[in-house]
Amino acid sequence: MKKKLLSGSFWMMMGSILSRVLGIIYLIPWLMMMGSLEQRNAAQAIFNSAYTPYALFLILSQSGFPSSIARQIAEYNSENKFRNSLRVFKYGMMVMLGMGIISGVIFWVTAPWIAATSPVVSVKATIITIRCCVPALVILPPMSLIRGFFQGNQDMQPYGISQLWEQLMRVIFIIATTFVIMEVMHGSYLEAVNYSTFAAFVGAIFSFVYLIWHGLKKRDEYVQLYEESLPADNNHIPTIFKGIIHDAIPFVVIGSAITIFQFADQLTFKPIAVNLMGMPLKTARDLFTYFSANPNKITAVVISLTTAISETSLPLLAQKQSHKETGNILSQNIELNLACLIPSSLLLSILSWEINGIFFDFQKLGSELMSFALVNSIVLALFMNFFTAVQSMGFQRYAVKKFGVGIILKLVLQTPAIYFFGAFGPTLATSVAFGLVTLDVYLMLRRNYIQPGQLKYASKILKINIFLLTITFVINRLIKLFFVPESKITAFIYCAVIASAFGIAYLLILKKTGVLGVIFGTVDETPQEKEDILLESATDYEIQTDENLGGAHFAPEDLEKMKNETQSTSVANRMENHGSKKKPYKLKGKHFE
Known about the structure:
Layout: H1 2-25, H2 27-32, H3 37-62, H4 65-78, H5 82-117, H6 123-131, H7 134-152, H8 157-184, H9 189-217, H10 219-228, H11 237-255, H12 257-276, H13 281-310, H14 323-350, H15 352-359, H16 364-392, H17 396-421, H18 425-448, H19 458-480, H20 488-512, H21 515-519, H22 533-536, H23 560-578
Helix pairs in contact: 1-8, 1-13, 3-5, 3-6, 3-7, 3-9, 3-12, 3-13, 4-5, 4-7, 5-6, 5-7, 6-9, 7-9, 8-9, 11-16, 11-17, 12-13, 12-17, 13-14, 13-16, 14-16, 14-19, 15-16, 15-20, 16-17, 16-18, 17-18, 19-20
């Protein structure tokens, strides 16, 4: 069983990571074929103006259905009810196809409004590009449900491989059509951009074909499961699906948080910069490309790589356990995240001139905005990590509420940030909004779960990173006095040398200080501090299920009264029973029996 779980995790992680890496590598030849700098900026702006809302519509059209169906199928299979699984899958396919069609129609109709609000010069061309995404928007929701069916049957391999097929064929189609249009036919870059967005549909078709082929290959196994299965229950399918969607919506909202903020930048930058500040439209387009279209592709990979490593511990948070056990999991998760996230983000930030040059252009303002965005990716990754942790513990409503506060902060700060800081403004507003709500959630977790001594390696990780990154920054500056890479090959070699030296030094110091084995789980070292009996016996109200609580979740702020009442009752009982006048023990958490 353990081997099967490890194999499944491997395929899912590799599929996600490799597909994202492919999604940025193709940019190098694609942009090289686009022509002049102005055409490259225009192509990126139009492509991003179509792809960001497309990604958001895709997330919303699926509504967390595939993963929820996977859990439902796994539950039925564990009860030998494979016929129920097939019934749910069949109706789920109808729902997903309907959701895809509805999303595609809405996307087609709203394309003129999205294009007119986006920071692009040619609104007409952008409308066409947006509508080229509609076929993929229709087919991807039912395809993702097929992945969920295999996942629910503990067959993870097609999930990862289908992702690779989808991205690989998409990239091949993009490069091939762009080459034919730009190099052979000497056509317009706008046409190349349109085919590049349509490539999402081509990739989805190949992925769909692979999934169907894999299903046919497993047909005999499924026939046997069907024959051995108990008869199908007469459950009310609409009621089941209503519950699935209701439970999935909070996860969908938080999962699409970064995309929502990026879409907010796309819709607000042009009205503020052009209409309010009088900035030329072409300038606004170029700045949008530098602070959003270009960096988002790099930061997405950084965030996915680091969170893919740290999120492996998050499912454990859904289990019923003591505060100390929950605190141990949270602490290890935070330390692992910091150990991976900070060096990757800040090292790339230091090398932003080279990174921007390799994938895009050697341009000063572009590299500065890339550097700032990479620093901001730390905040984004921590946001996703903490909010996913909070949801895993049963705080769905609390997480959505805090995210709503973050959106309000973002919209309030957006105009003054752009006015005073220009192209740095949208990223700054995102950093402040995400940072404040993330800090609030972290403080809640620290007050209620993380005990003294459980984050003992966090400060050591931060000090090691500060030390090495400072040295790297100084060395990079000194080298730049004599040599500045100005070609993609020299920039790549320069990055490889600096990153390799940093990585070796970082791993050696982590091993020397004993941090490496602890944070990656190869050494079991439990903090030796005095146990808090009150904390040990506390009830984890926050991770009780809806069934136990009658359908309601306790948000942290709702438990203040519980703590106060319990604290006063506990103190009164101790004084009555023992006649003691000593000052009661100071409580460190909010949740007590």
